[in-house]
UniProtKB/TrEMBL annotation:
GO cellular component, one term: plasma membrane
Entry keyword Nucleotide-binding: yes
Pfam families: ABC_tran (PF00005)
Protein known as: Lipoprotein-releasing system ATP-binding protein LolD
EC number(s) stated in the UniProt entry for this protein: 3.6.3.-
Naturally occurring in which organism (per UniProt): Rikenella microfusus
Domain ABC transporter: 12-236
Key words of the record: ATP-binding, Hydrolase, Lipoprotein, Nucleotide-binding, Transport
Family label: Belongs to the ABC transporter superfamily. Macrolide exporter (TC 3.A.1.122) family.
Presence of keyword ATP-binding: yes
Alphabetized GO MF terms: ATP binding; ATP hydrolysis activity; transmembrane transporter activity
Length: 236
């Protein structure tokens, strides 16, 4: 279906969603009846103290894990109860991830790392080359295409990771503390890149402890003990 400017459907919606982790002795309630919506084109920051459930929420939103209870609609499809194989398929076409620790594959060079999602999507080699080169240029890292992750600075590694996250043009980017391992200057550069991608239409949900990074978001959702305690619009 064509996107229209009048599109009022949320990018994603969760309803009364909970996640429990059970070990032999204890049950942890990581998310406790959470409901929220994110609109297409929104940039949302998720904040809250350590252990409040931020990563658990991001993992579920990113189809890396299932909720224990409740519904999750992504692009209008109920995805909370999908089996792992279907989840993986749906994730690959729709979601890009950026992690604090970059998560690049050490044995692959920059070009190959960024090419990987396109191989999964079975895009032909010639087209892949074009798409990878375009995004490396965009991320200002073309001159390092043949380098391996260990040969790059942290800021460069994160730019490669962002290139990999967006090369297949996902509708949604999930970022878990994307500047957590970067100095101020590189951190700001990464935030500027994410903001640009957002302005071009990509929806972004970012977990952060950084007050400064949260200023780039349209809205801040505060979690405490597995519950949303506040959802406030940012004065941009
Ligand atoms: N796989 C797991 N097994 C058992 N308990 C878990 C598991 N993953 C998370 N938890 C628990 O769920 C709760 C929420 O964890 P989560 O990692 O989502 O918090 P967080 O807000 O991301 O924390 P941080 O800011 O420290 O990364 C915590 O009490 C945690 O110990």
């Amino acid at each position: 279906m064509e996107n229209t400017n009048q599109n009022t459907e949320p990018m994603l919606r969760i309803e009364d969603l909970s996640k429990y982790f059970r070990t032999e002795e204890v049950e942890t309630v990581a998310l406790n009846h959470v409901s929220m919506e994110v609109a297409p084109g929104e940039f949302v920051a998720i904040m809250g103290p350590s252990g409040c459930g931020k990563s658990t929420l991001l993992n579920i939103l990113g189809l890396l894990d299932n909720p224990s209870e409740g519904k999750y609609y992504l692009l209008d499809k109920e995805v909370g109860s999908l089996k792992e194989k279907e989840r993986t398929l749906y994730r690959k076409g729709n979601i890009g991830f950026v992690f604090q620790s970059f998560n690049l594959i050490d044995e692959l060079n920059v070009f190959e790392n960024v090419e990987l999602p396109l191989i999964y999507l079975r895009i032909p080699a010639k087209k892949r080359k074009e798409m990878v080169n375009d995004i490396l240029q965009r991320m200002n890292i073309s001159h390092r295409a043949g380098h391996f992750p260990q040969q790059l600075s942290g800021g460069q590694q994160q730019r490669v990771a962002i290139a990999r996250a967006v090369v297949a043009q996902p509708k949604l980017i999930l970022a878990d503390e994307p500047t957590g391992n970067l100095d101020t200057k590189n951190g700001q550069e990464v935030m500027t890149l994410l903001s640009e991608l957002n302005r071009e239409g990509t929806t972004i949900i970012m977990v952060t402890h950084s007050q400064r990074d949260s200023t780039y978001a349209h809205r801040i959702i505060n979690l405490l003990d597995g519950q949303i305690v506040e959802s406030v619009k940012n004065n941009l």
